[in-house]
Design a protein that fits this description.
about 950 residues; mainly alpha; about 75% helix; elongated; disordered N terminus
């Protein structure tokens, strides 16, 4: 730290202060001063002479005097005279060297002669004090010796000598000066602790003591250099306390008015020093503790102010503000409290500490603003009102921005912050109702209410701005804000599960606000968007007719500032018609909407496409219900084309095919079904589609494609096992009906391997297979036998299976019959006859077996064939080859014998025929019966050729 100016002034006065009373006296005068008898040494006055070279003359005189005094010292002079001579001889040397050094400004270093002079002087002073310990001017001698040491640049010795003077001669008039000089030298050489001891020799006295003000001042700075700031403060305070002030001081000028004339600058610097020491304390509020312990120090405001200014210069703005605030807080009734509060706020602002500044302004408003005693008092100045207004604006502006920032981060419950801000705006409105910016304040008040989610209150304030204030520039926007506020209020009530009554009241307010806005501001750029918002609200309430009522005029006007609003209106119309099930209109508006929607495949666009598809689909369903299959098919196909939903596209395609099937357009139906099967192979309606496709091909007389379709169905794993089985059976039969015998045989053979049951279908497959082959062929015989064997092996008594088994058995028997009949009775008869007989036995057994199934058709045929077998055997006997070596008699006897042998078989034949004919009475008329009747008529025409019974049967049958 820079040395105080006063210290330099004191140091500059050092040489002047060395001159002491009597140091220019003659020996005689010195004797008088020391109470010596003048008669002991008589001196005569010499007349004045003109001296041409004064400097040389003075030097000669000085040397002469020194020589004279040395002679006196060396003579046996009286002790007092000798002592004075010693002192004067030393003083002349010291004065000369001091003068020389002062004149030249040079250092004593390197000047041997001057050093010797000073050394001699010091020796003389020491000798004097040693020889004359009770010398009356010993304090002066010590003072001069210290001076000589200082000139010799032996400062430690000089300091010690001055200390000795103060210690040994505490009552000396030079004690304060010596202590002060010792302290100054110690201070200069940074021996601060030692310097304090010397200063205290002076400051311990009354303030009237010589050097007290300077010593007290320097002592304070010495404490400061030792970093003992508390002690420094106390030391500076003693200077101010010495002014004995008994009234409030507002500023430094008032304080200096109490200072002695020659002490004003020192007092000013003491204020600065005390404040500087306070600034170095560890705690900025140390000043509060100090003055709290020492009340009634009326100069404290000056120190507070100076300390704050120091902090400000050091850019310690918060500390500066804290000092101002502390004074105002601790001295609320002080005349400067209000001013200091304002200065504290200014300090915060100067440092850019807006949060602290606003907090301080809030405290200031609470103390001096609306509602305070000062505000209620009469005569509040206009300046103060304007300051409060400005502070209130600063606070609310900052807190509003702060709340908005908190709302972005969601770190705190920002709604309460906005609510507090709203109350601040309200305070401005109520405190300054005539404010020129009142409309702006109301606008901000409404905004804060909205941001605090006090939407109902915000709506009222926006309404005032819209319909009460005459500002057309903001009226429309304020009306719009009112609408938004009421809508938000309604949503908040919904979220909080308010009663239906409250919701209904709020809805009315919403719609009234929208209507008022739309009517009062027809040219507002947001009018369309507000009306659309109302339409959205109606839509949420399922009031779809109201949506249509709002949106249709907007669509018709076609005056869009934003194409997105056009899209929204179309969307609301389309959705409302869709909800109203007016699918024709919803299709129209979705069709108009889609080209206006943003590119890409966003969710809204997908929804619109889906609803367009559904609209067409529903129209198709209606056409289907109304019995319009052609129209329904066309609409179903269009919905399938529009659909982005594969499931809906599949359903629409299937329904379209179904309607074409219904319209008997088999080929178009089959075409759609084929496409369905390819595009939606994993669809759950695939099986139904394939069934319909097979049916369509059958209806279109295309058995091959039908068979292929059924064969595909038989391989579809998701189809039921029974469906797969019947489809395979149908495929085989259709292949056969289409002349694809190989495919039919392949499919039916595979069917029998996979599905031996149910018996009836398996038997029909075997039967169909048997029909593919030539009669009595090996393959046919094999399938016929399988039919018989399967029925015999089954425990199931299935009539159709039994019928097919009977038929197969009959066909197998007929093969045996044909074989038996094919054996002719040739010679040698003994060989051919046994073969014929054996074959007949087998055939008879087969026919008996086929008739055992109990089916009249088969049984009567078997009976008939059995009769035929006997008849043909009889005929074979009669027509058999006659041996050639027979004479006529033998031949005749042989023929008679053959007739006798053949007759029983004819009788058997007639008996079999007769057994069939007897069934006529039971109402049986079958091909077997008919053949038997004919055969009887041929064999015994006389007996069976014409019978009334037969005529009755014919009449009843034909």
């Amino acid at each position: 730290m820079k040395m105080p100016l006063l210290l330099f002034a004191l140091c500059g006065a050092w040489q002047l202060c060395w001159a002491i009373e009597g140091d220019k006296q003659t020996i005689g005068e010195l004797l008088d001063r020391n109470a010596q008898n003048p008669d002991r040494l008589i001196l005569t006055t010499t007349p004045k002479q003109q001296i041409s070279n004064a400097a040389k003359a003075r030097e000669r005189a000085r040397l002469a005097a020194i020589e004279h005094y040395e002679r006196v010292i060396g003579a046996s002079a009286a002790p007092a005279i000798r002592a004075e001579a010693m002192r004067r001889a030393a003083d002349l040397r010291v004065e000369f060297i001091d003068g020389e050094l002062s004149h030249s400004g040079a250092s004593i270093n390197g000047d041997a002669s001057k050093n010797q002079e000073l050394k001699t002087a010091i020796t003389l002073y020491s000798q004097l004090l040693s020889e004359y310990p009770n010398y009356s001017a010993a304090d002066y001698v010590l003072y001069q010796m210290a001076r000589a040491y200082d000139l010799s640049e032996l400062q430690d010795s000089s300091i010690d000598t001055l200390r000795r003077l103060s210690r040994e001669f505490p009552e000396s008039k030079r004690v304060y000066e010596s202590s002060f000089r010792a302290a100054e030298m110690l201070y200069l050489y940074k021996r601060y602790s030692e310097a304090i001891v010397e200063y205290q020799r002076i400051t311990a006295k009354d303030s009237s003591a010589q050097y007290w003000w300077l010593a007290q001042y320097k002592q304070a700075w010495t404490y400061y250099q030792l970093d003992d700031y508390s002690a420094s403060v106390s030391a500076f305070a003693k200077i101010l306390d010495a002014l004995k002030i008994q009234s409030e001081i507002r500023d430094l000028a008032g304080l200096l008015a109490f200072a002695p004339n020659d002490k004003a600058e020192l007092v000013r610097d003491a204020v600065r020093g005390m404040s500087t020491a306070f600034s170095k304390l560890a705690r900025a509020d140390g000043i509060n503790d100090y003055f709290a312990a020492k009340p009634n120090q009326f100069y404290s405001p000056v120190i507070y102010r100076e300390l704050a200014e120091i902090y400000s210069r050091e850019k310690r703005y918060t500390d500066a503000a804290s000092v101002y605030e502390s004074f105002a807080r601790l001295n609320p009734r002080h005349i400067l409290a209000q001013q200091f509060s304002e200065r504290g706020i200014a300090s915060y602002r100067g440092g850019g500490f807006n949060e602290l500044a606003v907090t301080a302004q809030e405290q200031y408003i609470g103390t001096y603003g609306p509602g305070s005693a000062l505000w209620q008092a009469e005569g509040v100045s206009g300046d103060h009102r304007r300051l409060i207004r400005r502070y209130m604006q600063d606070v609310v502006t900052y807190r509003h921005a702060q709340a908005q920032q908190l709302a972005k981060t969601n770190d705190e419950p920002f709604k309460q912050h906005f609510s507090d801000v709203a109350e601040r705006y309200l305070a401005i409105i109520t405190s300054f109702p005539e404010d020129e910016n009142l409309e702006d304040v109301v606008g901000h008040y409404a905004d804060a209410l909205y941001e605090s989610e006090r939407f109902d209150e915000a709506a009222l304030q926006y309404g005032k701005l819209a319909y009460e204030y005459a500002n057309p520039e903001r009226a429309g926007d304020s009306a719009l804000a009112q609408v938004k506020s009421y809508r938000q209020w309604y949503r908040s009530l919904q979220e909080n599960q308010a009663s239906e009554s409250d919701l209904g009241d709020t809805r009315i307010k919403v719609f009234n606000a929208i209507a008022e806005f739309a009517n009062r501001f027809p040219d507002h750029k947001q009018r369309s968007s507000v009306l659309l918002a109302a339409a959205e609200d109606h839509y949420q309430l399922a009031a779809f007719s109201e949506v249509v009522e709002i949106c249709l005029p907007l669509i018709s006007a076609n005056n869009w500032s934003d194409e997105k609003l056009h899209s929204k209106a179309l969307g609301l119309l389309a959705d409302s018609y869709f909800a109203l099930k007016d699918y024709t209109q919803s299709e129209n508006y979705y069709t108009a909407l889609l080209p206006l929607m943003d590119g890409g495949d966003n969710e809204l666009k997908r929804t619109a496409k889906s609803r367009l598809t559904i609209s067409v689909f529903r129209q198709a369903e209606l056409a289907k219900q109304n019995g319009q299959p052609r129209l329904a098919a066309e609409l179903f196909q269009r919905s399938a084309h529009l659909s982005v939903d594969k499931g809906l596209a599949a359903e629409a395609t299937f329904n379209a095919a179904g309607q074409l099937f219904e319209a008997k357009d088999w080929l178009q139906s089959a075409s759609l079904l084929e496409r369905f099967s390819k595009e939606f192979s994993g669809h759950n309606m695939l099986v139904d589609a394939e069934k319909m496709l097979a049916a369509a091909y059958q209806k279109a007389a295309d058995p091959i494609r039908a068979a292929r379709t059924y064969e595909r169905i038989s391989r579809i794993t998701i189809a039921s096992a029974d469906l797969r089985r019947t489809a395979q059976l149908s495929a085989g039969n259709l292949y056969i009906s289409a002349g694809q015998r190989d495919d039919g045989a392949r499919v039916l053979s595979a069917y029998l391997r996979s599905y031996p049951l149910p018996l009836e279908d398996a038997q029909s497959a075997r039967f169909a297979l048997s029909e593919l082959y030539a009669i009595n062929s090996t393959s046919q015989t094999k399938w016929l036998r399988d039919i018989v064997a399967a029925d015999a092996a089954s425990r199931e008594k299935n009539s159709k299976s039994q019928l097919m088994a009977a038929d197969a058995s009959y066909k197998l028997a007929m093969a045996d019959v044909d074989l038996a009949n094919s054996i002719s009775l040739s010679l040698p008869i003994e060989k051919s006859l046994p073969r014929r007989q054996a074959a007949m036995e087998k055939a008879i057994g087969s026919l008996v077996k086929s008739s055992s199934f109990g089916f009249s058709d088969i049984t009567t045929l078997a009976n008939y064939e059995l009769g035929e077998l006997y008849r043909k055997f009889a005929m074979a006997l009669l027509e058999s080859e006659i041996p050639k070596k027979m004479d006529d008699d033998v031949r005749e006897q042989y023929l008679i014998l053959l007739e006798e042998q053949a007759y029983p078989f004819e009788e058997k034949a007639i008996a079999e025929y007769k057994s069939n004919m007897d069934l006529i009475d039971e109402g049986v008329w079958t091909p077997g019966v008919r053949k038997s009747v004919i055969a009887l008529a041929e064999l015994a025409p006389a007996k069976y050729g014409k019978q009334p019974k037969l005529e009755k049967v014919y009449d009843s049958l034909y």
